[in-house]
DNA sequence: TATCTCTTTGGGAACGTTCCCGGATTTTGG
DNA sequence: CCAAAATCCGGGAACGTTCCCAAAGAGATA
C-alpha cells in the first residue's frame, strides 16, 4: 500500500515526470487536456506530494522547534497555542521538546532539533547562561533562535519577547501594600533565570520604599511548581517568620502556597493575601480566585512565531526585543481587609 | 554558513563519498588510517548527517504524530511525557497537534500528519464516529494509528490503551454512597465520546443498586474544562435540584464545580462531596484535595508509544487493546461525614 | 518553401545519503 | 612464484521532487 509518487503517475499516463510535475504545479507550459488527465489520475490514486523530498530539495523542513522547561502547567501550553495559531496555517509543523528544567537536557534538545533540520527554534530557557555559547553556535550555523519569557543575557543579540517583570512585580506588590499587608513574603523563582531577579527587585524596591523590607521574607526556590510553593510556606512556618501576604513567582507556586496555608487552617485572604505572576486560567480556577499579573501568553506565542518567521525569511533581519503589556487583575485572594491579627 | 555534507568532506580529503560514508558508519571495509582522517575532518567541520536525506532514502521520517483534543490541561501533557519517555531515546521526534475538541479540525490534523510522512500517529479522539472512515483510510495507506483514553467503536481493529471506565466509575460512586451521600449528581462528559457513556453507566448502576438513582441528577456537558464543571453546578442550582455529592467526568470539571460551590458558600465535603476521574496533579493541588480515579497517564503514554512502535516495525502486527489499572484515591473532598442537612 | 516563434513535452541534474558492484592493490597459501 | 583471497576504494543508482535545457511539432511570417 505504498504512497503514489509522481513516477507512478508518469508510468500510468505514459508521460514524463516533468509533465506531471508541471500539471500539479499549475505551470502554464502545459496543454489543458494533459493537465486535466494528470489531475484526474492524481485524484484517483490519492497523490500527495512527498514533503521529505521537498525538504531535501529546498533545504528547509517547514518545521520549527519549541523548547520549554516543562509542559505540565498550562503556561507553555498557552504560549504553544499562540505559536500554532501563526504557524499552522502556513503549513509549518511544531516539534515540542521539554527540558525538565535541566540545562544539559536543554542542550540535547537543541542539538537534536538541529539534526532534525528545523527552520527555526522558539525557546524558553531554563538557565540564563549555561547554554549561551550553544545559542550563538546554533545561530551561526544558520538556525534562527527566538526567546520568550525567560531570556538570555541582554548582551546576546537575539529576537525575544517578554514582559516587564520589574515594573509589573512592583505594581502587584504595591497593591498588596495598599490592601494593608505589612509583612509580604516573596516566593522567589529559580536563581538561574533572570526573571527571578527582575521580579524580586521590583518586590524589594516597593517594600524598601515603604520601609517594610525584610530579607527574611524572601524564600528562594529551585523550581516553579505547586510543590515549590508549598515548600516555601513550610519554610516560613518552620522558621516562625510572620507574614500577612505572599507574592509568588508563578501561579502554580501561589496555588501550592495557598493550599498549604488553607490546609494549615490559615484564612486567605483574611490572614494572608496571595498574589502571583502568570497568565494561565489556573488563577481563576482556585478558591479564592487569585490576583495575578496576567501575561498575554497566547499573544506571546504569536509574537515569537512572527519573529522566528522574520528570521527565517531573511537571516540578516535585525533582532527585535518585543515587550508585551501585562495586565494586573485583582481577585479574591487579595481582597482589601481591615487587617486582623494573624497566627 | 552552510552545513557541511559528506560531499564537502570528500572534496576536502580527496576521497569518494562512499569512503566517507563508510568511515562514518563504522563499516569494516575501510583502512583505520583513512577512517581516522575522516572522523577528524568530520569533527573539525562539525559534520552532522542530514536527517531529511535519510528520511527520503529510507522512507521513514522518525517522527510520530500526537493528536489530542486539547493541551491546556495537564492530562495530555502527562501522557505526552510518557510518549516521549519511550520515543525520545530512540531518536523519534513527536509532532503535537491540537484538535480543539473539533472533529473536523482533528481530520485536518490527521491529513496534515500524513503529508508530513509521520511513521505513526497516537491519537486521543474527540468524536467517537465522525472520522472513523478516515482512520481506516489512513491505516490502509500505511500509517499506523494507536488510540488512548478516548477510543473509537470497538468494531474497529486498532491498537489502543485505556482504563476500565465502567468499573472504576462504579467504585468511586460506591465510595460516595459509602460515606453517606444519597443525592449524587453526575457531571457527564461529552456525548460524542464513549467514555462518557461508560462512566455514566457505572454511576447509574450503583445508584440504581442502592435505589437512589434519579435521572435529574445527570448533567450533560459538551466539554471537559473548568467552566463546564461550573456550568453544571449552576444548572443544578437553577433547577433547584438538591444534591450532596458530585461525581465528575474529569478533574478539571470537578474543580470547576467545587470552586463554584465554594464561591456560593457551600461547604466541601461537609455539604457536598466531590469526586472525579483523572490522574493529573490537579487533584492534589486544590483545597480540599480531590478524591479521584487516578489513571496512570504517563504509563498510558508509554504504552501507546510501544504499541505504535510495534506497528511501525511490523505493519501486520496484531492489534492490541491494553487495559491499564487505575487507582482510587480518597482525599479530603470525600471525607466520611455524619451527614448534616444541606442547603 | 524556408525560417522563426510558440507551445508542449522529455531528459536529466540536483538536494544528501547509503549501498551494491566492480576494480585495484595487497596479502595469503601452496 | 602464481593464483586465490582479502582489503580498500570509487562509481553510480536510488529515494521523490523541481526546474533548467533542449527538442519536436505546429503555426505564423516572409
Task: Characterise the protein shown here.
2 copies of one chain form a homodimer. Chain A has helices at 6-13, 17-24, 32-44, 51-58, 74-87, 103-115, 132-140, 165-178, 194-209, 226-238, 251-263, 297-313; strands at residues 63-68, 93-98, 120-123, 145-148, 159-163, 184-188, 218-220, 245-248, 273-278, 291-294, 321-324, 327-329. Chain A folds into 3 domains: 6-49, lambda repressor-like DNA-binding domains (434 Repressor (Amino-terminal Domain), Orthogonal Bundle), CATH 1.10.260; 61-163 and 296-324, Rossmann fold; 165-295 and 328-334, Response regulator (Rossmann fold). In chain A, α10 packs across α11. The longest helix of chain A is centred in the C-terminal third of the chain and has 17 residues, at 297-313. Chain A is built from 12 helices and 12 strands. Chain A has 343 residues and is α/β, with parallel strands linked by helices. In chain A, α7 links the parallel β3 and β4 (145-148). Mean pLDDT of chain A is 94; it is low at 339-343. Chains A and B meet through α4, α5, β2, α6 and α11 of A and α4, α5, β2, α6 and α11 of B. Chain B binds a DNA duplex (30 and 30 nucleotides) through residues 5-7, 15-19, 21-22, 25, 27-31, 34, 49-50, 52-59.
Amino acid at each position: 500500500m505504498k504512497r503514489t509518487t509522481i513516477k507512478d503517475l508518469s508510468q500510468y499516463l505514459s508521460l514524463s515526470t516533468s509533465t506531471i510535475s508541471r500539471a500539479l504545479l499549475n505551470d502554464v507550459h502545459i496543454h489543458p487536456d494533459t493537465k486535466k488527465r494528470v489531475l484526474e489520475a492524481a485524484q484517483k490514486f490519492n497523490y500527495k506530494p512527498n514533503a521529505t523530498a521537498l525538504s531535501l530539495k529546498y533545504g528547509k523542513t517547514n518545521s520549527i522547534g519549541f523548547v520549554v522547561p516543562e509542559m505540565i502547567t498550562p503556561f507553555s501550553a498557552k504560549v504553544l497555542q499562540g505559536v500554532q495559531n501563526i504557524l499552522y496555517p502556513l503549513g509549518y509543523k511544531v516539534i515540542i521538546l521539554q527540558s525538565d528544567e535541566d540545562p544539559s537536557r536543554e542542550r540535547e534538545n537543541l542539538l537534536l532539533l538541529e539534526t532534525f533540520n528545523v527552520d527555526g527554534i522558539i525557546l524558553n530557557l531554563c538557565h540564563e547562561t549555561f547554554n549561551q555559547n550553544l545559542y550563538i553556535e546554533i545561530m551561526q550555523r544558520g538556525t534562527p533562535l527566538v526567546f520568550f519569557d525567560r531570556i538570555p543575557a541582554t548582551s546576546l543579540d537575539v529576537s525575544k519577547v517578554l514582559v516587564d517583570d520589574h515594573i509589573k512585580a512592583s505594581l502587584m506588590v504595591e497593591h498588596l501594600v495598599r490592601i494593608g499587608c505589612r509583612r509580604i513574603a516573596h516566593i522567589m523563582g529559580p536563581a538561574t533565570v533572570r526573571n527571578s531577579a527582575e521580579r524580586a527587585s521590583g518586590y524589594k524596591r516597593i517594600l524598601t520604599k515603604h520601609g517594610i523590607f525584610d530579607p527574611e521574607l524572601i524564600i528562594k526556590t529551585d523550581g516553579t511548581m505547586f510543590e515549590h510553593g508549598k515548600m516555601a510556606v513550610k519554610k516560613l512556618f518552620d522558621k516562625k517568620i510572620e507574614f500577612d501576604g505572599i507574592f509568588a513567582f508563578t501561579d502554580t507556586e501561589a496555588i501550592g502556597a495557598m493550599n498549604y496555608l488553607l490546609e494549615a487552617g490559615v484564612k486567605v485572604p483574611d490572614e494572608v493575601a496571595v498574589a502571583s505572576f502568570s497568565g494561565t486560567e489556573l488563577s481563576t480556577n482556585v478558591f479564592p480566585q487569585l490576583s495575578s499579573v496576567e501575561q498575554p501568553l497566547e499573544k506571546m506565542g504569536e509574537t515569537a512565531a512572527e519573529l522566528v518567521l522574520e528570521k527565517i525569511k531573511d537571516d540578516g533581519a535585525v533582532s527585535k526585543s518585543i515587550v508585551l503589556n501585562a495586565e494586573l487583575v485583582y481577585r479574591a485572594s487579595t481582597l482589601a481587609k481591615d487587617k486582623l491579627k494573624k497566627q
